[in-house]
Design brief:
The complex is a heterotrimer. By secondary structure, chain A is an alpha/beta fold. Chain A has a domain of 145 residues: 3-Layer(aba) Sandwich (Rossmann fold), CATH 3.40.50. Chain A contains 18 helices and twelve strands. The radius of gyration of chain B is 23 Å and the shape is globular. Chain B is 35% helix and 17% strand. Chain C is of the alpha+beta class. Chain C folds into two domains: 136 residues, Uridine Diphospho-n-acetylenolpyruvylglucosamine Reductase, domain 3; 208 residues, Vanillyl-alcohol Oxidase, Chain A, domain 3 (3-Layer(aba) Sandwich). Chain C has 16 helices and 17 strands. Chain C starts with 15 loop residues before the first strand and ends in a 13-residue tail after the last helix. In chain C, 59% of the residues are buried. The chains are: A alpha/beta, B alpha+beta, C alpha+beta.
């Protein structure tokens, strides 16, 4: 949708500031939901502020000043504002969709921070902004894997740049592969044909680039003939479910799972079990891309009308994403299977998780903001008394770990599989 | 867009630091937006943005900013969470003092109070004090509002008011940066004795700047207050249930919630007196049925579908609209039992009944009673709202308040009418301190449809006129030009406000169109004629034409 | 500059009594010094007051309003510091209206507590009171002075139980506050069903609040609405005791938190005895009999549980059980009767105070020092003043202490009462000064500063003075009302 087309949503903003806060906070320390305004401080940085900017851009013909660009792009596109807004406004405002349109509007005119522009250029050139194409499959050295581009497979294992290019993720990736090999499932990896899914490009505002990358990945999926795509990338998972439908890119009759879902499914099937004992107290960070931003987007072509004299409603039933449909439980279920492992929830969890600052190119373009967000989250993790912060997103894990080490937080940061790896017992428990 | 001269901008930057002010249009546009719709306007961007938004971190910085403004004759206005945006500047080119960085909170739980800065939200305060068996008053804006802003500068009525009063009463000592930039502490903090009272030594000075309505941004900036807290017999943290956005709370142990209904307002009034005399109720609110239905619906569409299908639950239908939602709060099972027994006896004597609620609906209502989380949903029932009454007086005035509302509404809520379709008036109502009633009537309107917006504006004015001739109680909805138009009949309150304004803000820099200005407003000068002539029933079509032109 | 003699022309329709006997009686009604009034006027209604103020402005005559019908007047707010006319409102003493179901009544300034209770009884109401006010004390004056009441759980705000007021400012302008500000006369409003229940307003004004504590320097109240207590179906009072103040501070806090108790407060034993005795001899006898391990603890908390006619026995039962639990947790013990001194007896005296002012019973005279503070700071203040209150330090002076939680427990009134006789006058005056200094050092808030205390109070808060003077100019531009008081 264009900014003009978003007018009816923009005008519904009552400027209540709910977009900045957890709907019912459990403490003052962790009441904020928006890293963007926590960083920028001016209302313009909030979800509501960006809605107003989007309206003013058209109405007042605002110039895309450095401050305007800053207020729009110093944002991880985590969707927390959208979820919070829906507390009372339902689907009347939906700041996230306006923010996508806003970024697209600015990107079209070249008004994007140079760092982010370069990032997208690298994506186009290399298939990922996180590393060169020739290194993308270094993780696979020594592994015997089916190339899904060369023959049909039942399951396509999509790796994703944040796993492929992060050596710290390779042990967990290898464990995943080992598990899958143990199942006897026919699976493959697209190897050199695999690109990132276009989600980050879409987040930044380059919808054309996103479309190109999405179409390419969709083609890879089609070529593989897989009925199931398992991705280790939370970013890709979110893109498959939430972005591709916006772009009109379809994967066909293919089930898409995040690796955390898949592993939990295999655990339930008894392919492996988790045994032993742990004394650890952990807490879990819900990645935005795996959580509220992974709810399936369904295109709706209707319009808004007034009924009951003044009530503004969509003219037909319209699916609304409240954040509840995110992937919150698989990792928790898996972790709960480790005897003695105690999970203490952070105050802001599931649909109201506070973004760690890792996505939409924020660590590259706004490192200070990204660090601020991570510190906020790490403090919350420490407040639970946990010795380890666990997450299911490689991007979150990399970022949180780096910031934790930089700032001497006495808390480990690990992925789910890393936590449970020592407890794996093959076959029925 | 207007800009400040460079040297003034520099002066302000020297006070707060370069990164904490901005004159960028995207920043100022955010402060120009009026989205609430409770005051009908066709515009969202009002066309009067501030020249700059400044983010001070301390009271001293606020004082410095104001002195800079005073030196250069520039208007300013304080802004905290900015709900609405009632805190928007009154004049294009003013300085918006955004108090986001001032958010310190200190809980003095032993003495049932907190000391708060402007950007502490009610939700934060509630979370911090609940662990001490305390809760705070929360106004209709919900947990995201600033209690300091409400207590010093706005109205301050809220759903839990039977238990938590209203903010004209919850304000204790306060720190005030005057329109001339002087830092004054009013009450006990002035003697460095603490923040526990706003009165003394000698006269209660705070009565000069906060009445039934707060200072509306017209008398400087308030940077810290003592704020009163109330007992909470529930758990240290609310136990949330359900899924967003339809979350509720588990009704705590020793609490009980009831949705009650009566056949007549007379019977409801009799029951109200009994309930108050027995002191059984902690939380007691009448939410109009349409609003109940909306609270039970995650979206407008969900509400509309239920309405169209005839599947709205009983509590959301007009036939049970003579209602109270009541929550009993007790510290022990025996106390609760007594309260329940008394309630049942009262219902029996006054022909009231309990309306059945689904468990999830009960929990949602409980959450709303304690946190006001869902009150703001009334904003989505129309892109504007008409409003009438807004009064405090005896419970005995309840039937009259309803009658006033119904007379004003006429056919406007019928299908095809100008205001939100509903089968009852839209009176939100609750006791304040268990002593008297507060009620306001808020039918939704549509500001993008001329007919509806005009009807809303006319409705508001007719409400004021009706309130002049036959008042139901004392109102606070008269601010801005309305204060001048109608203040004459309230002891010339507007004249006194003007004297206060001229005494404490001689340069008229504390920029608020909601407070009276140094001179009688043009609307007020024209009003006697307008009222006499244009509000005559024969001239109604002409009036509507004029309003349509004014507001389109 | 105010005139020092009466003009030839009197105000229309108002007699100013200049008889020597009346003047002398007024001066003598003060415990401290008062200038001789130029005369005494007794207006009958608001119109009279407006004319009187108009006349006073015209001729620059000072006016000192008083509401209580006689002395002894102790607090110097009614003592003249310059020649002025006394505006004696004591004969304006009507109950204008009472509404039982709303627990509210409209009264004139001359209404005293005993008369008020007699008038309220038929409406099922009784007055909310301070601690055993003197029998000729004006109800409105008491509340306008912000005297603390015994009912913390019904004390929502400093102005409580006062609601709306009708005022004539020193400028001569009439003004009705809060719920009284509605258009029309009071009679029209009452007929319409309005009940003047809101204290604040209209709009951004709360001049009732401003007038409270102003000692008559800003305006004269001609009537006011006052919240009352519904006469309970049943009530039972208890005394709890402790050797130190702290357990009773905690019990007070819990009573406020649980909203339990229609009346509660803390006294030290001396103050308790003063409240309970009708003669100096009885007081001295009981005082002398008190021993360290006495039944009557050094500190006593009085709490009165009440129930309306809604299952009252059931209510009294759970209230009593809760009270026992809270007291036990706080470390307070139930005090049985001693020498016939019971909680019930104190209740009787609270609701129907003796004709003779209780503070003069122990030794014939008394001096007070009080401030506002908070319950958790009282102990530190007691410790700070303890060197001044040893038997050696006091000699024959008896020291009473009264702690009244206010605003539902947010703050409290801390009062020291020195009971003394004529021979101890000088010593008592000295102790008062020292107590002021000590309390001031502990940040006690002198919100109601009388006489010389005003100097200390405003030295502690110089910041507010210019703003109060602006208020004074606004409401009393010629400075005719109670000249020389506070910081004016």
């Amino acid at each position: 949708m264009s900014l003009e087309e978003r007018r009816v949503y923009q005008e519904a903003c009552i400027r209540c500031s709910q977009c900045k806060f957890v709907p019912a906070p459990k403490s003052k320390a962790f009441s904020s939901i928006c890293p963007s305004i926590d960083y920028g401080q001016f209302h313009a940085y909030s979800g509501g502020g960006k809605v107003i900017t989007s309206y003013a851009l058209v109405k007042n013909n605002l110039e895309a000043t450095p401050r305007l660009i800053d207020s729009v792009f110093a944002c991880t596109m985590c969707g927390a504002c959208d979820t919070a807004c829906k507390t009372n406004e339902g689907d009347n405002v939906e700041p996230m969709d306006t923010m996508y349109a806003l970024r697209a509007h600015l990107a079209k005119a070249g008004n994007v921070p140079p760092v982010l522009r370069e990032l997208v250029e690298r994506m186009l050139a290399q298939g990922s902004h996180l590393g060169p194409r020739h290194s993308r499959n270094d993780w696979a050295v020594g592994l015997s894997l089916t190339n899904a581009s060369q023959g049909p497979v039942d399951v396509l294992l999509h790796i994703g740049g944040e796993v492929a290019f992060d050596k710290a993720q390779w042990p967990s990736l290898r464990t995943t592969i080992k598990i899958m090999q143990k199942t006897g499932i026919d699976f493959g990896v697209a190897m050199d044909d695999e690109n990132d899914g276009g989600g980050t490009a879409y987040d930044i505002g380059y919808q054309d680039v996103a479309l190109e990358m999405a179409q390419a990945l969709a083609e890879v999926v089609r070529k593989s003939h897989a009925e199931l795509v398992v991705t280790t990338s939370a970013q890709a998972y979110s893109a498959f479910r939430n972005i591709y439908p916006r772009l009109g890119v379809e994967l066909g009759a293919v089930e898409v799972l995040h690796v955390s879902d898949y592993l939990e499914r295999l655990l339930q099937q008894g392919v492996f079990a988790l045994t032993g004992k742990s004394q650890k107290i952990i807490t879990y960070h819900d990645p935005c891309k795996l959580g509220r931003m992974s709810e399936t987007y369904v295109q709706w072509q209707g319009k808004w009308i007034n009924v009951l004299n003044t009530l503004s409603v969509p003219d037909s039933t319209r699916p609304v994403r409240f954040g509840n449909g995110g992937n919150y439980e698989s990792a928790r279920q898996t972790l709960s299977r480790v005897p003695g492992l105690t999970l203490v929830e952070m105050e802001r969890n599931r649909a109201h998780s506070y973004c760690c600052g890792a996505s939409a190119g924020t660590p590259q373009a706004y490192p200070e903001m990204a660090e601020m967000a991570a510190i906020n989250r790490l403090k919350e993790a420490q407040a639970t008394g946990a010795s380890c912060l666990v997450t299911s997103c490689a991007g979150c894990e990399l970022h949180l770990r780096a910031i934790a080490q930089r700032n001497n937080f006495q808390i480990e940061v690990k992925g789910v599989l890393e936590v449970v790896a020592d407890h794996i017992q093959w076959g029925q428990a | 867009m207007s800009r400040l001269p460079k040297e003034i901008y520099r002066d302000l930057a020297d006070i707060v630091g370069e990164q904490f002010l901005s004159e960028d249009d995207c920043v100022t546009a955010s402060h120009d937006w009026f989205g609430l719709g409770a005051d009908p306007s066709t515009r969202t961007l009002l066309g009067k943005p501030p020249a700059v938004v400044v983010l001070p971190a301390t009271t001293e910085q606020v004082a410095g900013i104001i002195k800079t403004c005073a030196r250069h004759g520039i208007k300013f206005k304080a802004h905290s969470t900015g709900y609405g945006n009632y805190a928007g500047v009154g004049t294009k080119g003013s300085v918006s003092i955004d108090l986001r960085r001032m958010n310190r909170l200190e809980v003095d739980h032993k003495n049932r109070m907190a000391i708060i800065e402007p950007y502490v939200t009610a939700g934060e305060l509630l979370a911090e004090v609940m662990q001490h068996n305390l809760m705070c008053h929360i106004i209709g804006a919900g947990p995201i509002h600033s209690p300091l802003a409400s207590a010093t500068s706005m109205a301050g009525v809220g759903v839990p008011g039977n238990h938590t009063s209203n903010n004209s009463r919850n304000l204790l000592s306060l720190e005030w940066v005057t329109p001339e930039g002087e830092i004054v502490r009013i009450g006990s903090s002035g003697s460095d004795s603490g923040w526990f009272t706003g009165e003394g030594p000698g006269p209660g000075f705070r009565g000069m700047i906060r009445g039934v309505m707060g200072a509306l941004g017209g008398l400087g900036v308030f940077t810290r207050i003592g704020y009163k807290l109330y007992p909470w017999a529930g758990p240290a943290a609310l136990e949330w249930t359900g899924a967003h956005p339809q979350r509720g709370i588990k009704v705590p142990e020793n609490f009980a919630l009831y949705q009650l209904s009566w056949e007549s307002w007379k019977d409801l009034t009799a029951a109200t007196y009994d309930i108050q005399h027995s002191r059984i109720a902690a939380f007691m609110t009448r939410t109009p049925p349409v609003a109940v239905g909306n609270i039970f619906a995650e979206t407008n569409r969900a509400y509309y579908e239920a309405h169209a299908a005839g599947t709205l639950v009983e509590a959301a239908r007009g036939e049970t609209g003579k209602s109270w939602t009541l929550m009993l709060m007790a510290w022990s099972p025996t106390e609760l039992k007594w309260k329940q027994d008394v309630l049942m006896a009262i219902l029996d004597q006054t022909f009231g009944r309990v309306v059945a609620l689904r468990p999830d609906h009960e929990q949602i209502l409980a959450a709303n009673l304690v946190t006001s989380l869902y009150v703001a949903r009334f904003n989505r029932m129309g892109s504007a709202a008409a409003v009438s009454l807004g009064i405090f007086d005896s419970f005995a005035c309840i039937p009259k308040a309803i009658q006033h509302s119904e007379e004003l509404l006429g056919d406007m809520q019928k299908p095809g009418g100008e205001l939100l379709q509903a089968d009852t008036e839209q009176n939100w109502m609750w006791p304040s301190e268990g002593r008297h009633i507060w009620t306001e009537n808020n039918p939704g309107a549509n500001r993008f449809v001329s007919k509806s917006l005009v009807a809303a504006v006319e409705f508001i004015l007719r409400g004021f006129i009706k309130g002049e001739k036959d008042p139901v109680g004392i109102t606070f909805f008269l601010f801005g030009p309305a204060a001048d138009m109608f203040g004459k009949n309230l002891g010339n309150a507007n004249v006194w406000m003007r004297r206060v304004k001229n005494a404490f803000d001689p340069q008229n820099l504390s920029d608020s169109k909601a407070f009276v200005g140094p001179q009688l407003s043009p609307e007020a000068k024209a009003w006697p004629f307008v009222k006499k002539v244009l509000f005559h029933r024969w001239l109604r079509p002409l009036l509507r034409k004029i309003l349509a032109k004014q507001f389109s | 500059m105010l005139a020092t003699s009466l003009p030839a022309q009197a105000p229309d329709g108002i007699v100013i009594d200049t008889q020597n006997a009346s003047i002398e009686a007024y001066v003598a009604s003060h415990v401290g010094y008062s200038e001789r009034p130029l005369g005494i006027a007794k207006p009958a209604n608001q119109d009279d007051i407006e004319r009187l103020i108009g006349w006073a402005n015209q001729h620059k005559i000072g006016l000192v309003p008083v509401s209580s019908s006689g002395g002894p007047r102790r607090r110097a707010d009614t003592a003249l510091s310059v020649p002025a006319v006394v505006v004696d409102l004591s004969t304006m003493d009507r109950l204008i209206h009472a509404e039982g179901r709303d627990s509210i009544a409209l009264i004139e300034p001359g209404m005293t507590f005993p008369a008020f209770d007699r008038a309220l009884a038929s409406h099922g109401l009784r007055s909310i009171k301070p601690l055993m006010p003197r029998s000729n004390k004006s109800v409105l004056a008491s509340f306008l002075e912000r005297e603390p009441t015994l009912s913390p759980n019904d004390h929502w705000d400093t102005t409580d139980p006062l609601a709306a007021l009708s005022i004539v400012f020193g400028s001569g302008e009439p003004f009705r506050t809060g719920g009284a500000s509605l258009p029309g006369t009071l009679e029209e409003n009452l007929k319409r069903g309005n009940r003047q229940m809101m204290a604040s307003g209209p709009l951004v004004t709360d001049y009732g609040r401003v007038l409270c504590g102003s000692q008559g320097t800003l305006g004269i109240v001609t009537w006011g609405s006052v919240y009352c207590e519904r006469i309970p179906e049943c009530e039972q009072a208890f005394l709890y005791g402790a050797n130190d103040f702290s357990p009773l501070a905690e019990l007070s806090r819990q009573l406020a938190l649980h909203q339990l108790g229609a009346q509660f407060f803390v006294l030290n034993r001396t103050q308790f005895l003063a409240a309970m005795c009708d003669s100096t001899a009885t007081f001295e006898q009981l005082f002398a009999e008190c021993t360290p391990g006495d039944t009557l603890s050094p500190w006593l908390l009085y709490v009165n549980l009440t129930a309306s006619d809604h299952l009252p026995e059931q209510k009294m039962q759970w209230q009593t059980e809760t009270l026992w639990e809270l007291a036990e947790q706080a470390g307070a013990r139930l005090i049985p009767s001693k020498d016939g001194l019971t909680a019930a007896m104190l209740s009787q005296r609270l609701h129907q105070p003796p004709l003779d002012y209780y503070k003069d019973t122990p030794r014939g005279r008394h001096k007070e020092v009080f401030c506002l503070t908070q319950l958790d700071k009282v102990q530190a203040m007691l410790d700070a003043v303890s060197p001044l209150t040893t038997p050696d330090s006091l000699g024959g002076i008896r020291l009473g202490v009264y702690v009244q939680p206010t605003i539902q427990g947010v703050s409290c009134h801390l009062e020291f009462c020195l009971f003394h006789d004529a021979s101890e006058e000088r010593q008592a005056v000295q102790r008062v000064k020292e107590l002021h200094v000590a309390l001031s050092g502990e940040k006690g808030f002198f919100s109601r500063p009388y006489d010389e205390w005003a100097k200390t109070a405003f030295e502690n808060d110089t910041g507010i003075v210019p703003y109060l003077r602006t208020v004074k100019e606004m409401f009393d531009p010629n400075g005719i009302l109670n000249p020389g008081k506070l910081c004016f």
